[in-house]
Amino acid sequence: LSPQELERYARHLVLREIGGPGQQKLKTSKALVVGAGGLGSPVAMYLAAAGVGTIGIIDDDVVSLANLQRQIIHDTNSVGDPKTASSARTINRINPHVTVEMHSGWTRKMPMILSAAMTLSRTGRTILPPVILQLKCAKNSRCRWSRQRLAVLTVQLQP
Question: How many Cβ atoms sit within 10 Å of the Cβ of residue 83?
Answer without folding.
Answer: 27
